[in-house]
Amino acid sequence: MSSHNEPAGNPSKPSPDTSHALSAYARWAGMYDAVFTRILRRGRMALAEAANAIGGKCLNVGVGTGLELPMFAPNLRVTGVDLSEPMLEIARKRVAELGLTNVDDLLVMDAHELDFPDASFDVVVAPYLVTILPDPHRSLDEMVRVVKPGGHIILANHIAAESGPVAWAESALAKIGPGLGWDPRFPWSVIGDWLEQRNDVTLVERRTLPPLGLFALIHMQKR
Ligand SMILES: C[S@@+](CC[C@H](N)C(=O)[O-])C[C@H]1O[C@@H](n2cnc3c(N)ncnc32)[C@H](O)[C@@H]1O
C-alpha cells in the first residue's frame, strides 16, 4: 500500500489512490472513538501542547472525528481537513456539542493535495496521519508549502521499532495492516530521508511517547 522509498513528492504526479483509506475509515467511523480515544491520547496532547505554544492559524490534517480539537487553546484558529466525510461528521458534532469556537472549518480534502495557497498557516499538525498515506513525502511537501516561512509542522505518529519484541509484533500486525488502514512497520527513515532531501525544514524535536514508546512526537520548522 505504501511507497515509502519514492523520492520526495512531486505535485505534477497523479494523485495517489486513496480509495483504500476511504473505505477503511467509512467502516471505522462509528467505532473509532471507542477504540482510539485513550490509546492515542498522549500523542494528541503532546502535539496540541506544542501547537498551543506557537498560536496563530493552524491546519489540522487528518482531523478524523476531532478527538484532538478540544485540546487546542483559544490562541489557535483551527481548520481541520480529512478524506473521510463520515469521520468529519462526528468531528462537526463534537465541535457543536463542546462549543469549540476556535474551530473555523472542517473540510473534506486529500492530504496529498491541500487546497490552500502557499504560506497560509502558522502551524500544521497531523496527528496519526502520515503512516497511513500512500505517499507520505508528497503530503509532507504539501504541509511545507502551506505553512509560512518560520512556521511549524508537528506530527504524532507510530514509528516502527528497529528490533526486539515490539518489532516482531509490528511485523505480525502488518499482516492485518490493510484492514487497520495503517502500516505498523512505518520506519523513521521515511521522515528522516525526506528531511535530508529538504534543505528548508529543520527537525526541532523527536520525542518518544507512551504507551510502550510506540508513538513519537515529531516537530519540524520551515526555515
Ligand atoms: C488514525 S486517524 C487519526 C484521526 C485523528 N487525528 C486522531 O488523532 O484520532 C487517520 C485519519 O486520516 C484520514 N485520512 C486518511 N487518508 C487521508 C488522506 N489522504 N487525506 C486526508 N485524510 C486522510 C482518515 O480518514 C482518518 O480520519
For the structure shown, list the relevant keywords.
223 residues; alpha/beta; Rossmann fold; 7-stranded mixed sheet; 7 helices; 7 strands; disordered N terminus; binds S-adenosylmethionine
List the helices and strands and how they pair.
Layout: H1 19-36, H2 41-52, E1 56-61, E2 76-82, H3 85-98, E3 103-108, E4 121-127, H4 136-146, E5 147-158, H5 164-174, H6 177-180, H7 189-197, E6 201-209, E7 215-222
Helix pairs in contact: 1-3
The structure holds S-adenosylmethionine.
Residues 18, 21, 25, 36, 40, 44, 62-64, 67-68, 82-84, 87, 110-112, 127-129, 132-133 line the site of S-adenosylmethionine.
Note down, in words, how this protein is organized.
Helices cover 35% and strands 25% of the residues. A 7-stranded mixed beta sheet has the order 3-2-1-4-5-7-6. Strand 2, helix 3 (85-98) and strand 3 form a beta-alpha-beta unit. Residues 1-9 have low confidence and may be disordered. The longest helix is centred in the N-terminal third of the chain and has 18 residues, at 19-36. It has helices at 19-36, 41-52, 85-98, 136-146, 164-174, 177-180, 189-197; strands at 56-61, 76-82, 103-108, 121-127, 147-158, 201-209, 215-222. Helix 1 packs parallel to helix 3. The two termini are 32 Å apart. It has 223 residues and is α/β, with parallel strands linked by helices. It is built from 7 helices and 7 strands. The chain has one domain (19-222): 3-Layer(aba) Sandwich (Rossmann fold), CATH 3.40.50.150. The site of S-adenosylmethionine has 23 residues, from helix 1.
